[in-house]
Structure formats: C-alpha cells, structure tokens
Amino acid sequence: MGFLAKDPWNPPIRREQMLARELVRRGTAVQFVQAPADVRRTRTDPANWWRHLHRAHWAPAAPGVRVTERSTVLPGSRGGPAERLDAATLRGFLRRSGWEQDLTVVMLPWEWRATRALGGRVVFDCTDDWARLLPAARGLPDQLRRIADEADEVVVVNRVLADLFPGRDPVVVPNGTDEALVSAPQTAERAERSAVYVGSIAARFDVDLVRAVLRALPDWTLDVHGQLVFPQRERAAAQRFLALQQEFPGRFRYRGLVHRDQLAAVLDTATVALVPDVASRAWGQSSMKTYDYCSRGLPVISTAGHLEHSSDVPPHTYVVTGPAEMAAAVQAATDEPVSWAKERVDWATARTWDRRTDAWLAASMTRPVVTRTDDHSLS
Questions:
Q1: pLDDT averaged over every residue in the chain
Q2: Could you identify which of 20, 242, 305, 341 might form a hypothetical disulfide with 279, taking C-beta atoms 3.0 to 4.6 angstroms apart as the criterion?
Q3: What's the CA gap between 215 and 194, in Å, rounded?
Q4: 148: helix, coil or strand?
Q5: CA proximity to 10, closest of 217, 186, 231, 259
Q6: How confident is the model at residue 377 (pLDDT cuts 50, 70, 90)?
Q7: Measuring CA to CA, how many Å separate 238 from each of 102, 124, 166, 210?
Q8: pLDDT of residue 370
Q9: d(CA 266, CA 268)
C-alpha cells in the first residue's frame, strides 16, 4: 500500500502516519511518498532536490514503512500548467520507482491527475477544505470534480467536506487517538489554572483570541506544544505567535514539539485543553487534538470550525465564539462534574486508530474499482 502524502513523515503525528502504522500492524507493508519540495529547495539543498526529482530513494522510517522524498518544479496548486507539469513529473517518478500498489492513497487534490493510469485501487483521502486552507490555490473545483468522477473511493474526515465532490457520497472516517494514550497510567498531578494546547501551529492559531483570554484570566497559564508550520510567506504570523511569550512572560510558554510517548504526562498536568483556531480556517477539519485531549479526560474548549456541523463532537465540549465565551468556559470547566472526565475517556476509547483504520479499510478496499483512462495531455 502506498501514500502520496500531504506532509513529511517526521514528525509522525498526522493522520497518514497513524493509518500507516495501523496498516503495518495488520501485516501490510507501506510506501510513503512525502509532500514534494519545489524548485526553491535548490537554494538550500540542490543535490537532494535533483536526487529526488526522477525516482524514489527509499529509506526505512518505521517497522514496515519505507519513505522517500519527492521533488517537483512548481507546486501543483498554482494552476493548470503547474498542475500538469507536476503531474507529469510525479507520474514519471512513480513509474521509474516501480510503484505497483494494491492501494494508492492520494491526499493533495492537484496530484490526482498523475494517478489516472495507475493499477490497483486509488483512493482520495480528504482532510481539509483546501480552498479555505490555501486561498491562493488555483483549479481546485476542477480537480475535485475529477476526483469525484474517477476515484475508487473518496474518504472525508468531516461530513461537510462531502459537498466538495459533486455526484459522490464520500465515506466519513474522522481522525482518532492512540490506544496507548488512552491506557497510559497517570503519573503527573493536574496543576491549577493551567491550560494546554497540543498540535501544529499555523496561521489558523488565533493569536488575538489567546491574547484576549490571557488578559481576561490573569492567574492562568497556557503551555503550547507543537511544530511551527508557518510557510515562508506567513513569517509575520509566526512572529506574532512567538511574541506572546514576551507579552505574557511565564504565563504563555511555547514548549516546542512533544513526542507521543510524553503526551500523556503533558496533558495530565493541565486543567483544561484549548483549540483556539480561526473558525473559518478550521471549517470541515477533524481535530486530532480533541481526541487526544479526551483520551485523558480533559475539558475541551474550542472555537467552531472543526466541530461545526460535525457528527463526532466529544461529550461536554465547550464550543465558543469569542474571548469572553472562552474565558468563561475555562472558569466553568474547573467546577464540572467528575463523571464528565470518564465520559470523555470512554468516547475516545471508542475512537482509537485501530477502530478508525477498520472503517477506513472497509471504505477503501470494498467498493468496485473505477476505470481510469490515461491523460494524454501529460505525454
């Protein structure tokens, strides 16, 4: 089985890595092609860019998983010519790399065109409303329509994303959490008036919201754990995020990436867990952090977006629309019934990655194969 992924393998904390690990546990070997590096990579690492332009160079990344980088000239999201060029590059890359998979999973819509002549099943796994996440992307409606027409299956993480694929009835398989995180013993005591955030940090992290909440709750702290994933064009947003440390010294603490084996201890020291995202950027997603938070029984206080119109909202979640509501929810969560923590853990236990992978495999491997034709415009 192979993934044409939307992210690098490291850090291995995202949906595709979790699915890959579960597939290996079931006895399936996985090949994982990382999201491509475009020609700008030649400024910093030209040899590596050229090395991965024409074929894969596989390296073991985890038991049963082989990973390769991939290079391209232009991001396929830049419109028709760039999409076709990237598709031609990817198609040649797969052919020269001996890509023969029973199932190929595509995660970036502008890469779909390259897979039309592949054998085996080809499934599109949709984790985002790409038009909202990448407003500058071009050609998305046509790409999504092509996927709807040609994919053997379309899997979405949130039911609202189904509307992106006209004429299809995608299967909804949200994200999940680790069995190990649910069952890990509690080794740390909860601190008083301590909020936590664990997840990737990008422009959707609402700096203004967090600033207002910290001002409204001067006796609270917020520890933020995660990888900074701001693109180069959003350096100003990254600096605004980091500036919170100077604005609230000792109260806003950016801790960097936390390893999964340390996550239980990190969550167990907190009083509440936050999802302070800009709702318009998070709309239609499935927040892995909410499953992780619930696995340790933490109160989840979230802006809308991930949970808006979702059929998979954790029990007793506080969904807020602004700083006043978030600050009030943070305070209210300190007095909630003890039984609510167990309800959250039970909810997360029913949504571990082994269960999610069962549902994902049932969708990806059971429906009839769609006949795909070669795209001669790429020759």
A1: 93
A2: 305
A3: 14
A4: helix
A5: 259
A6: very low
A7: 41, 31, 36, 14
A8: 53
A9: 6
In three-state secondary structure terms, 239 is helix
Distances (CA, A) of 277 to 192, 207, 303: 24, 9, 6
**Rounded to two decimals, what is the model's pTM?**
0.91
**Distance (Å, whole) CA 226 – CA 231:** 15
pLDDT band at 376 (very low <50, low <70, confident <90, very high): very low
316: alpha, beta or left? (left if phi > 0; alpha if psi -120 to 50): left
Token pair for 62: 């985890």
Q: How confident is the model at residue 30 (pLDDT cuts 50, 70, 90)?
A: very high
* Mean predicted confidence (pLDDT) in 41-56: 95
Strand order in the sheet with 318-320: 252-256, 221-225, 194-198, 272-275, 300-303, 318-320
Helix (H, G, I), strand (E, B) or coil at 195: strand
pLDDT for res 305: 78
Q: Rounded distance, CA 102 to CA 122, Å? A: 8
Please give the single-letter amino acid code of residue 15.
Answer: R
> Hey, what's the torsion of the CAs at 330, 335, 340, 342, to 10 degrees?
100
Residues 190 and 300: beta-carbon distance below 8 Å: no
| Parallel/antiparallel/unpaired status of strands 272-275 and 318-320 | unpaired
